Amino acid sequence: MKFDKKILIGMIAAGIFFVMPTVTFAEDENSTIADTREVPENIYTWIQSTDRANYYFNHQQINYQVNDDGFINLNILIVPTVCMYDEIQIEDVIAKRRWNMQSLKGYDKLVGRADYLEFNLIDETVQVTERVELDDQWGTLSSDKNGQPIKLKDLNKNSVECKFYRSILRWAKKHNEKIIKHSWGKLSAEDKKLSQDEMPLMKLNLP
Predict the structure, then answer these.
(1) Scanning 44, 73, 76, 180, which has its CA 20 to 30 A from the CA of 66?
(2) What is the pTM of this model?
(3) Which pLDDT value is given to residue 32?
(4) Is the predicted pLDDT of residue 34 greater than 50, yes or no?
């Protein structure tokens, strides 16, 4: 049983207006904050900002993959994220779609994107399994499922993506027990014997 992205989108849409006090776990405390847009921070943790966007991950829905037999797969970590654009980034996305002769229907309401990350903790890879561009109600404008696994060690350590992934994984290591508890499955008898330090996440080398 894998994480249902359609359910998440519905949950997001329902909870978007219930914004709680900010929860932050910044890679760089001196990051420049881009033009901010409302994000339900009782659901999302802010990681970083660039001149063009703000990056968050869903700390309520980060979870381990659950196999069809109902057992948690400690090798695969699933992380829903959002990236909220400023006006210049929105214009850039629209211009690129226009150049590629792609549909612009609804893009006057574009606010950002949701990326669904899958970390393979054994292969030490990350994959954007789906990228969804969002309108101002957090509805889907378009979806791309063509992302391929990337070796974490091959990432540029100073890149926005690498800093984002590193901070998510660092947070996950600090909250591994919590992630296991809300992963909608159960640990196998063998995995129950593992100490926290023996679990794949804790052994993973951060990029």
Answers:
(1) 44
(2) 0.82
(3) 39
(4) no
